[in-house]
Amino acid sequence: MSFSVVIPARYASTRLPGKPLADIAGKPMIQHVYDRASESGASRIVVATDDERIRAACADFGAEVVMTSPDHASGTDRLEEVARTLGFAEDHCIVNVQGDEPLLPAALIDQVAANLVQHPDASIATLCEAILEPDALFNPNVVKVVFDHRGMAHYFSRAPIPWARDEWSAGAVPDRLPTSIGYYRHIGIYGYRVKLLQDFVTWAPAPIEVTESLEQLRALFNGARIHVSQACQQPPAGVDTEADLERVRRLFAKDL
What we know:
This protein is α/β, with parallel strands linked by helices. The protein has a single domain (3-233), classed as Alpha-Beta Complex (Spore Coat Polysaccharide Biosynthesis Protein SpsA, Chain A), CATH 3.90.550.10. It has helices at residues 29-38, 52-60, 75-86, 106-118, 134-137, 194-200, 207-212, 216-221, 242-255; strands at 3-9, 23-24, 27-28, 44-49, 64-67, 93-96, 124-130, 144-147, 153-157, 184-193, 226-230. The chain has a seven-stranded mixed beta sheet, sandwiched between helices. Strands 2-3 form a two-stranded antiparallel ribbon. Strand 4 (44-49), helix 2 and strand 5 form a beta-alpha-beta unit. Helix 3 crosses helix 6 (194-200).
């Protein structure tokens, strides 16, 4: 199995500007993400950025960097530019690892890549984990996914899906979840075939994508298949805020 990891890293961030360069245990966060990717079976690891400061920091620890356009509307567009720049074949697999995931287990990277290889009818592979608490199911910031017996995604939503019509009153948050069906949170790590990336950038945003603000719905809308598997390890939370950054710093400090 041969695959590459691409790590998109933007300097601009509404909640935490410059976070790829935030210091964690004496290293910039992007270096910790690169280190996690290096523990996977990836044959090539590339940082994709539009910022010279991030490029320079990556050069200091020996990472390969591709400078990309600052005008991309999404991370998927950025990945397609990397694949095009590096001349990746249409059937090559790229795993997208976000630049704010310094604790991401390498096993999850390998799992996504393996699942894509093992399901040739899928253009994208991703992961999920069980939802056990009603508060998480009804939280619009927690993206839910429904898939079939083969793991092929039917839909992603910010709404609680599937809806237990006979057990829940409309608008009421239940005290417990039905035991007759599983509920799953989508984990935002993706494996892509390069051909999907080439097609994706030609598709207009889909109505369901715009409504839910979920980019993966563009792929489903256009007939692409997404394989979903339960994560082999529980993924730690990424870094979105200053509080998240301090939490991660404390975790690294414990290991020193």
